[in-house]
User: Fold this.
Amino acid sequence: MNRYSAYFLVFSAFLPLVSCHSLGEITSRLINEGPPKLESIQLDGDSIISVYTLKEKTYKKEFRTNNVLTKSVVYHDDGSTYVITEYKDGIRIEQRIFSRTGSLKSLSKFEPPKSRIISKVEYHEDGSVKKLNQF
Assistant:
């Protein structure tokens, strides 16, 4: 399992909170029920199936990976969280900021156009640097 898969597995544990209908419901579920408990992960072809429990209920989420290249979650000391998802046709950056009491302060999404260039840099042992561009 690579690093990005590990990031996704951490993120997938919080997917039941995303399935709520409003930000207020997400906030109240975080405060009242706490984070979900991940029970199992199954890899099935190009799908990741996670089973977890949240306050006596069992949820099963299936995430299809055929369009997602990478998913990473970045946590900051101020309580903000950035979820960066790189698709074949662009990048989505989602910022979540939680206060110290657990309430959600803001949620913003940014989805660039499909023509956005995704740059990656590879550093090799011989000192050479290779820059890769994807469209």
User: Anything to note?
Assistant: The chain has three helices and nine strands. The radius of gyration is 17 Å.
